[in-house]
Design brief:
One of its GO terms (molecular function) is metal ion binding. The protein is an alpha+beta fold. Helix content is about 60%, strand content about 10%.
Length: about 350
Amino acid sequence: MNNTTYVFHVNGMHCKACSLIIEETFKELPYITSAQVSLADHRVTVTGAFIDTPKKIAEDLTELVHKHGYTISAEKNTHVAGWVDFIYAIPISVILISAFLLLQKAGLTSLITGSNVSYGTAFIIGLIASVSSCLAIVGGLVLSLSANSAREGGTWRTQTLFHIGRIAGFFILGGFVGLLGNSLHLGLTANVVLGSVVALVMFILGVNLLDIFHFTKRLQLTMPARFSRYIMRGSKHDYYLAPALIGIGTFFLPCGFTQSMQLYALSTGNFAQGSLTMFFFALGTLPMLALLSFGSLNIAHKPWKGIFFKTAGIIVIALALLNFSNALATVGIIRPLFNF
């Protein structure tokens, strides 16, 4: 049977992690020889030995990825920005941001500390990441590990080893990233530039979470996906230490939030600060991912997911702007916006 190539439209993608998980899921089918996803165009090109109509193929592909919140269609659907979600998202995000700033004023937490991120901010960004890009790709790994563990008679061991490996790996590798920054001898100006770059990355991530403009997804920077594919495929096995090794490997997955924290860790130029930054970030992702591991939580199918993502996007944009303004204040370009 000859191979045929089809182009389908994808709904529900937010980041490069979404592209990767769709590609790897489709490639598992024996009759599909290749699958390539364009995040910017929200399209997937698949080649394989198909016998059904495009509409039926799209329905079959949707069944594979629907659990992650994606749908595949033969015809392009009109993008729905979900403006009504802002009616709820804006006041919720304003309340949460105000609460964060009040906690900082009271000395109970610290969101803004010089040109570098604080551990409290790293934890909050981890919480947000766990319901966006991390939930897309790391959540997919968790579900895959859980499914394979169940088939082979596994218990809670698989999921526990995964989360232990993830947190420990982020702590240790974050420290080495900090040491790398130290070897580069980054000065004040370089740290401010690096902090500004991270703020820009976070700003783009926040805009993408709002899901209003598709063109902004072209601006999102990610690491090469080759290594990420090895991690994805490794989740199909349930060797004793495989879950822990995969948890460590998530440090290198194409998650924009993870990479922004890695840049922060690099700017610290210190093993302890770098390791603690990544540790608190990973700790922030734990509650949501643990619920996904040991329960049946899947925000992708909740009726309020639009409000949730838009609230998260506004908070990420606010944190990006606050850190950018503070980086400028550090070198005296502007006056500090908040004197806490």
